[in-house]
Specification:
The chain has helices spanning 16-29, 45-55, 60-63, 97-107, 111-126, and strands at residues 2-8, 36-43, 68-72, 88-96. The chain has 132 residues and is of the alpha/beta class. The chain has a four-stranded mixed beta sheet with strand order 1-2-4-3, with helices on both faces. The termini are far apart.
């Protein structure tokens, strides 16, 4: 079973169930069938920029450009052994709500669809699938 936890720092008009379903669908379509967990946070762009600076060590201009951040557990430098009965923790996806709105306006799509697209993109990063 794949468990997805969703956190929204405000009452953004996006369904947590749809976010969970999008992540699960993306993971299953890409071969994740074992018991696993991931989390998704829908945050203000200010918080996403702060995280990009802090954790990715990015400069202001680049940190401001990210609509989605992924923090795959597999990329953590410290070695951690999961007990056999526990689920594999894949990592965290962080989405900037304001950037999702900008993308939706530019692409003429629903805001929720923009968020779901970013969540799917972040899900791929959690399992090591990156774009060029």
């Amino acid at each position: 079973m794949i468990k997805i936890t969703v956190f929204k720092d405000k009452q953004y008009p996006v369904s947590a169930k749809k976010i969970k379903d999008a992540v699960k669908k993306t993971l299953v379509e890409n071969g994740i069938v074992s018991d696993s967990e991931a989390s998704v946070a829908l945050l203000s762009h200010t918080k996403v920029v702060k995280m990009a600076k802090q954790y990715l060590k990015e400069k202001d201009s680049l940190a401001d450009s990210h609509p989605v951040l992924s923090f795959p557990n597999a990329e953590i430098k410290k070695h951690f052994v999961f007990p056999p009965e526990k689920k594999i923790y894949l990592g965290e996806i962080v989405v900037s709500f304001e950037k999702a709105v900008e993308i939706a306006e530019k692409e003429k799509m629903l805001i929720e669809d923009s968020v779901l697209s970013l969540v799917e993109h972040g899900s791929l990063h959690l399992i090591g699938i990156h774009h060029d």
